[in-house]
Amino acid sequence: MSRFAYRKLQLAIITKAIEYNVPIVFVNPRNTSIACLRCRAKLSYIRRLAICEKCRVIADRDKVGAMNIYLKTIQVLAPRLGSWGIYSMTDETKPRDGLFKNEGMITYKTI
Length: 111
Known about the structure:
It is a single chain. The chain is of the alpha+beta class. It is 31% helix and 14% strand. The protein has helices spanning 3-19, 61-77; strands at 24-26, 44-46, 49-51, 58-60, 107-109. It has a 3-stranded antiparallel beta sheet. A two-stranded parallel ribbon has the order 1-5. A hairpin with a 6-residue loop joins strand 3 and strand 4 (58-60).
């Protein structure tokens, strides 16, 4: 995917997230395929397979990276669960198009 197409997709996702008041977390994908999902030890690779010598987990490197991004996201969001905004998810007085006028969107950024 070209950089332009990636940015366009990213902008579309951010726009919809803001429209529906969904929290946005930006995670740096660098080095996300290095740590084991279970024990956080350094993984060794045979082609695309990641192997943890400590706990014997074997997984595809893309899946390891995706799961580590997910785990980083959960670390950011877990302390804030239940506090996305001043309106509950089932508030029926909220307009169908998402946000009230001048309602801000909270974004989180990981390290």
